[in-house]
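Justification of resources, computational component.

The compute hours requested in this renewal are based largely on the per-chain cost of generating structure records like the one below. Each record pairs the submitted sequence with a full structure-token output. That output is archived, and it is also reused by downstream analysis tasks.
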Amino acid sequence: MVADTGRRQRVLLAPVTVSPTKPLTPTHLKYLLSLDLIRRATDAFADIDCAYHHTVYTGSRQVAGFWEYLERRHPGIDADALGEEDIGHLYVDHHREETAAPYAALRPVVRRAEDGWVHPVSARLLDLWEGHYRRLGMVDPELGRGRPELASADEVIDLLVRHDAGLDGRPLAAPVYLDATRKGLPLRLVMSAEGQANYLVHLLRELIPVLDRYDLVVLAHDVELRSDYRTVAHVLETLGARVARFEVPRVPLDGVTASARAGGWEGYTLGAFQDPLIERHGLAAFRLGMRLYLVAGLGRTAQESFSVKYLGRWVRRAERLLADGGAGQGAEVDVASYLTRLTGRQGYADPYRVASALLGRGADVPVAELLRVVTGEAAGAGEPVLSGVGAGGIEGQ
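The structure output for this chain reads:
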């Protein structure tokens, strides 16, 4: 069970962000709705913040490389005229270029991004995403907006070296590595000899300064980043943090599991299938059905392809569940106590277990209260995301 210390535990949910360069596919929606459910359910028994800011990662090649491509190949593009799939096609075209732009070409874009600049195409995409988040009833429809204060890369690298968690080759004009070899993991290059930092440096610049505020840090990521996040978990634990990892698999489309950069998502974006389901079953049923299908129905492994037909069945199931409301079921059970027991020792609410509890509807499940948690009507839902590094810094760590 979660330790009873006389106060609510402090939890930081630290997900890798979905870069604002592509459409939201079923994989992204499964990930985002899982995060939303972690936040809502964990808030019933712990104080939870979420560190999710797109601006932290805009200096990485994935984002800055796309922006450099847009500046070079599509100068003066009318971003406001673009839809989500239009932007996705630009992203696919960018990755079809035979040769990646050298860091010298990216450096001016990285500098502008560090100063807070966002390319108009990504700004347009974030506006479209906010509309999706509001339609889905997410706890934070402005997810990813804002700009936290970051520690400098130099501070972070120096700290890691002092704790034997990093190798700094910069004095020899060599790369920088995260060092988790004591954990049996390989060295992970995080900064090239030319000074190009990857996303892990940006992640650590955000998280390290606030570690001492939290009893638990939950790192959320997709399965393909497992090796990187095992390394990050080791680094944070070396610095004294308690760390858990939450993984989400990619959802196959027509039997194919691929990155959004490869395309193949046409017809599977939210805008392509939401309207008929909402018109037929109502917005509340659609919101709940999306959560039940993507989180519980596709499960931890998502071996089956996303299906609009099956989604429709889950939305109908959600409609019936909302109509019934679980009146009288588990009425004597306090939802916070129930979720604490369901959580066990891991310290945060597992979205699969929460969604599955609603579907199983055992005699001890407080269905009505749990529905209010899952659908966003629980007390305490909607706390603001972590907005900055704040006091403390990393010098004393």
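Strands lie at 9-15, 46-50, 166-168, 176-178, 188-191, 216-222, 243-248. Residues 178 and 188 are 5 Å apart (CA to CA).
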